[in-house]
Design goal:
- By secondary structure, the chain is α/β, with parallel strands linked by helices.
- Helix content is 38%, strand content 14%.
- The chain is built from twelve helices and twelve strands.
- The strands form three sheets. It has a seven-stranded mixed β-sheet, with helices on both faces.
- Strand 3, helix 5 and strand 4 form a beta-alpha-beta unit.
- Helix 3 runs parallel beside helix 9.
- The longest helix has 27 residues.
- It is globular.
- The relative contact order is 0.17.
- The structure holds pyridoxal-5'-phosphate (PLP).
- Pyridoxal-5'-phosphate binds next to helix 4.
- The site of pyridoxal-5'-phosphate has 14 residues, from helix 4.
């Protein structure tokens, strides 16, 4: 840290992204990436013509992509905000909507406390219940802006649409941000509720369910006035925060063929998740029933840190969090059926070696 850094930032603890190792080839189940490539239409959309057009700035309004997303989700273009990953949108939301503090769970996406810290926002931490489910009643009682990952990470547990609605309607004077990064793996989206409630902002991303984590594309759906607030921040920081290639890829991911492709691959992933859950449970692991593209796994005879290190030694990366309450668990992204078969086989060996 230099002596020039703003005092406001000197104690900031940054978010730690999952590892992207380059030393050797791992089975990479640590950052919840989609195990399949983007749809064929996406791959052909990012072509030489698009490259040549890179000399021109992209459309700062992203009009075409917004129109396609609006059509896909049954809302108006004015209800859609697009940005450089949903992290960007969460960042803007903390900046924009949290004067009265932010309420989020103790165990949830690790970026929320970082944003809160960055903007000096008071955090009201609402502990998950003993079974690691969200304490919906407490979220109804708080008077802070609510930020809820649904399904939650790293647990994979979701709350029902009725519970989301209960939180949103409990206090119309604060914004409720529902982070639906994992909703395409069996969860219920709250997008339809955005027509009824002016205080609901739903964030989604192309990173987890469309195989485009590397493109950095997220979007939010909500009342036009909320979207305008986000646009205000975007145009006050970086109007061109989505590049041409990403915009083209985002549009191509919504063609009829792409929709079919993604629906099929997402269904495949859910089937892999459910069979991996069954296989690990049969080995004596505790697996939280997940509606996301990862599972949260605890093995009674092996500590969380040990399992993580053992798997790494065997060429498999999974994610371990040191937080006391979840230190016995590892979050394991769902890969291809072959990758998951290898994982199950290695975990079986690790358990066997303890006996
Ligand atoms: C991965 C993740 C994000 C970030 O997604 P990007 O669009 O890649 O920035 C946001 N929220 C949750 C809960 C996530 O797991």
């Amino acid at each position: 840290m230099s002596r020039f850094l703003s005092k406001k930032l000197s104690s900031l603890e940054a978010y730690t992204p999952g590892e992207q190792p380059r030393d050797k080839k791992y089975i990479k189940l640590n950052t919840n990436e989609f195990p399949y490539p983007p749809a064929p239409d996406v791959i052909s959309a990012v072509n030489a013509d698009e490259m040549r057009a890179l000399r021109l700035y992209p459309d700062p309004t992203g009009a075409e992509l917004k129109a396609r997303l609006a059509e896909f989700y049954g809302v108006g273009s004015e209800n859609v905000f697009i940005s450089n990953g949903s992290d960007d949108i969460l960042n803007f939301s903390f900046m924009a909507f949290c004067d009265g503090g932010a309420a989020y769970a103790d165990i949830t996406y690790g970026f929320y406390p970082v944003f809160a810290e960055l903007y000096g926002i008071n955090s009201k931490i609402i502990p998950l219940k003993d079974d690691l489910s969200l304490d919906v009643d407490e979220f109804c009682r708080t008077d802070s802006t609510c930020v809820i990952a649904n399904p939650n990470a790293p647990t994979g547990l979701a709350i029902s649409l009725a519970d989301v609605e209960r939180i949103v309607s409990a206090n119309e004077n604060r914004v409720v941000v529902v982070d639906e990064a994992y909703v395409d793996f069996g969860g219920e989206s709250a997008v339809a509720l955005t027509k009824k409630y002016k205080n609901l902002l739903v964030c989604q991303t192309y990173s987890k369910s469309r195989g485009m984590a590397g493109a950095r594309l997220g979007f939010a759906i909500g009342d036009a006035a909320l979207i305008a607030d986000l646009e205000l921040i975007k145009y006050s920081t970086n109007p061109y925060n989505l590049d041409r290639l990403t915009l083209a890829a985002g549009v191509a991911a919504l063609t009829d063929d792409s929709r079919r492709y993604y629906a099929e691959k997402q269904a495949e992933l859910m089937a892999t998740r459910d069979s991996a859950t069954a296989a690990l449970t049969a080995l004596g692991a505790e697996v939280i029933p997940s509606l996301a593209n990862f599972i949260f796994v605890k093995i009674p005879s092996v500590s969380g840190a040990e399992l993580n290190a053992e798997l790494r030694r065997r060429g498999i990366l999974v994610r371990h969090f040191k937080t006391e309450r979840i230190k016995d668990y590892n979050r394991i992204s769902i890969g291809t059926p072959e990758e998951m078969a290898t994982l199950v086989c290695e975990i079986e060996k690790i358990i066997g070696e303890r006996k």
